[in-house]
Every structure is written in C-alpha cells, then in structure tokens.
C-alpha cells in the first residue's frame, strides 16, 4: 500500500497544551488526532490511501415490549477482528504491511468505529454514509410500547486509542498521556452532544479477555445513544423518589465511611455501600459536574494521576492484571443536567486470583444480586493494593 503525506492539518489548541488535528479516513469516517503537550510528532499526517468497502447500513433497533428496552441488531459486528498480533493490529499506525485504521504515528487518536452498533442518521462525510431509513422520532417515540416496533440504530460509536503501542491499558499510560485522553473525552463529549438526536454519551474502557476484549491494543470507546440508557432511566427514577441532590448526599455519606480508597481536592474514590461486584469502585467529582465537558482544568489535572493510581492499585490486587470495565456515566444531553453527576463505575468480576464471578440464574435472569465480598473488606484490600503499587514504583 502507498502511504502519502497530507498537508499540515488545521490545529486547535485545547486545555493543558493538547493539540487537536482533524481529518477523515478513506471511507469518510472522522479521524481526530490529539497530540500530547510537547509532542515530538510533526504537524503533518499521512493520508489514508486504502481502498475500503462502502460504509455498512446503520444497524436496526428492536423494542423489547416486556421491558421497554431497545435492542440493537448489528450483524456487521459479527466478524470483528479477534486478538490479532502486533503485525495485524488495526489500531496501530499504518505500515506498508499493516493497512490499519490510523494512517500516522500518533499520541492519542479517535475515529468512528468501522463496525458500529450505532451509525449515522443521514448521509454524512461527503456522501459516504448510507441514510437511515427509519430513525427515532424523539424520546416520546422511543418510550411508546408496541409489538414489532423497530427504528434505525442512529447514533455514533468511536474508538479512542490511548497509545500507538500494541498492548497495555489506560493504567499503563503516563500522567501526561492520561491527561491527553481526558482532554479528548471532554472534547468529544462536547462535540457529540451537538449531533442531532443524541441523548446520552458514554466513554468506557473494556480491559481483559475475561471481559470480552477482542483487541489487546490500549483503547477505549465512546458510545452516543439515541435514547437514555436503561441504567440511567433507573437512576432518574431514584432521583425522582429521593432528591435532586442525591449524588451530593451519596458523596457525603461515603466520605464519612471506611469505604474511601482515594481522595483529592476535586475527586473522591470509594467502594459503594451496596457494591455488587467483587471489585467495584466509584470515582466522583466533589462538585456537581454533568459530564467531562463541564470539568475545569484543575479537575482534569488532578484526575489524570489519581485515576492512574486507582487503576494501578486494582492491578496490584493479584499477580496478574485485573480485567475490568471502566464506565464513565454522564448526564443525558438534554435532561437532568442539574441532578445526574459525572462519575466512574469501575467493576471487575474477579473474586480471587483464579476465580471469576459469573452472572447466573438469579442475577442474569432476575437482576437480583448477591455479593460475596463485603464492601468494607474490598475497600481495605484496594487501599492496601494502591499502597503496594506506589511502593513498587517508587
């Protein structure tokens, strides 16, 4: 394959000295580079010279009338790449022998997923995206119950590459790189919130084969939904039944407990009072912030090292890395902005060095949970693991 050099891309300076450079891939999907402050990379980026198949039709959602949940049916995701070697890593910078998704060497890169669960609503990107045939018609439309209801799965799925390296995770990055990723999360949250029909934006990282990861490359994703997710709808019901300042009450309740694992000027990490998972930690800003786009420079600066301390501590629980889901819950785009607070829910099914918690009958079928590890005990173990990790790196 030929790798052609492109002209210098228009640069936008973001917080902390991060530079944003936007371009497109060969099939019209967006690609955004986020350069570290003081990066050694030049301003130019290679052109994506691949010949790609047309973008797939946007997937379809079907309504489960028993629960009111919308289920996306995305057949294009069935044949995703599974645990490739470094010479075929689709998230690594392109080489003459590896026609990957990112044409140039990068610090952090974000691009539209090639096999998305949620896709474009209308023809976008110079006419390269198929038009949705049956898009959602707003929240009232999606709330209506009926047999056989379908809608096009309108939204957006993006991949966030934390590093050009083939293996690793968020927790293996430097503080500078973590800060760049946080800036990218904030920038993408702001941009995706402006897309028509988007109701909620969800940054997350899956880590480990036990979670179902298909690529070892250090990366996360951002899903932009056309509805408010079932989990957040349950949260909104709880807020309605208690008080609009529920998150502040939770924070003050946990800060007075023995379940705190880390605390800074702007952020607090704790094992929640009713933790479900063997490893479960919530990380919350100390003031009300609806999403990453609303965080201040100081909050982002503190989050980078504090979040790394948490992830490295979780990895130090056992001799091998801990599988986890790092789920950043944000307020919906258009409702409950003053009551739903940005927060991380970090969960792992690992209940021992060689044991996993599997969701079987009661939990999977009836959503009725049993926790094997008391939250207070879990918090003490995580605090000890954080201390071990910091001592080992000193």
Automatic annotation (TrEMBL):
Domain Galactose-1-phosphate uridyl transferase N-terminal: 62-228
EC id: 2.7.7.12
Superkingdom of origin: Bacteria
Pathway: Carbohydrate metabolism; galactose metabolism
Homology family: Belongs to the galactose-1-phosphate uridylyltransferase type 1 family.
Keywords annotated in UniProt: Carbohydrate metabolism, Galactose metabolism, Metal-binding, Nucleotidyltransferase, Transferase, Zinc
Residues in Galactose-1-phosphate uridyl transferase C-terminal domain copies: 256-383
One Pfam family here: GalP_UDP_tr_C
The name this protein goes by in its record: Galactose-1-phosphate uridylyltransferase
Top-level EC class as recorded in UniProt: transferase
GO molecular function terms attached to this record: nucleotidyltransferase activity
InterPro entries: GalP_UDPtransf1, GalP_UDPtransf1_His-AS, GalP_Utransf_C, GalP_Utransf_N, HIT-like_sf
PANTHER family referenced in this protein's UniProt entry, alphabetically: GALACTOSE-1-PHOSPHATE URIDYLYLTRANSFERASE (PTHR11943)
PROSITE patterns hit by this protein: GAL_P_UDP_TRANSF_I (PS00117)
Gene of this entry: galT
């Amino acid at each position: 394959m030929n790798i052609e050099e492109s002209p210098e891309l228009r640069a936008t300076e973001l917080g902390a000295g991060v530079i944003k450079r936007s371009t497109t891939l060969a099939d019209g999907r967006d690609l955004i580079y986020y350069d570290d402050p003081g990066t050694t990379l030049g301003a130019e980026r290679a052109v994506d010279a691949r010949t790609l198949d047309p973008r797939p039709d946007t997937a379809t959602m079907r309504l489960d009338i028993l629960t009111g949940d919308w289920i996306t049916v995305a057949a294009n995701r069935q044949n995703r790449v599974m645990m490739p070697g470094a010479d075929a890593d689709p998230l690594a910078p392109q080489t003459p022998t590896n026609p990957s998704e990112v044409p140039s060497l990068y610090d952090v890169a974000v691009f539209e997923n090639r096999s998305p669960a949620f896709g474009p609503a209308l023809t976008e990107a110079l006419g390269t995206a198929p038009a949705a045939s049956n898009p959602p018609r707003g929240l009232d439309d999606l709330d209506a119950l009926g047999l056989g209801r379908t809608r096009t799965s309108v939204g957006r799925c993006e991949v966030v590459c934390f590093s050009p390296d083939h293996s690793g995770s968020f927790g293996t990055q430097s503080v500078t790189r973590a800060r760049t990723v946080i800036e990218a999360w904030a920038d993408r949250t702001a941009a995706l919130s402006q897309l028509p029909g988007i109701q909620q934006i969800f940054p997350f990282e899956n880590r480990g084969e036990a979670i179902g990861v298909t690529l070892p490359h250090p990366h996360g994703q951002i899903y932009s939904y056309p509805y408010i997710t079932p989990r957040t709808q349950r949260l909104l019901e709880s807020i309605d039944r208690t008080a609009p300042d529920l998150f502040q009450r939770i924070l003050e309740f946990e800060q007075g407990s023995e379940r705190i694992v880390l605390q800074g000027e702007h952020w607090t990490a704790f094992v929640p009072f009713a933790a479900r998972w063997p490893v479960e930690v919530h990380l919350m800003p100390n003031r009300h912030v609806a999403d990453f786009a609303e965080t201040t420079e100081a909050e982002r600066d503190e989050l980078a090292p504090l979040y790394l301390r948490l992830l490295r501590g979780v990895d130090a629980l056992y001799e091998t890395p801990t599988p986890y889901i790092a789920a950043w819950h944000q307020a919906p785009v258009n409702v409950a902005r003053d009551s739903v607070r940005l927060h991380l829910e970090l969960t792992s099914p690992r209940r021992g060095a060689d044991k996993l918690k599997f969701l079987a009958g009661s939990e999977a079928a009836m959503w009725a949970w049993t926790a094997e590890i008391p939250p207070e005990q879990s918090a003490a173990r995580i605090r000890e693991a954080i201390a071990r990790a910091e001592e080992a790196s000193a």
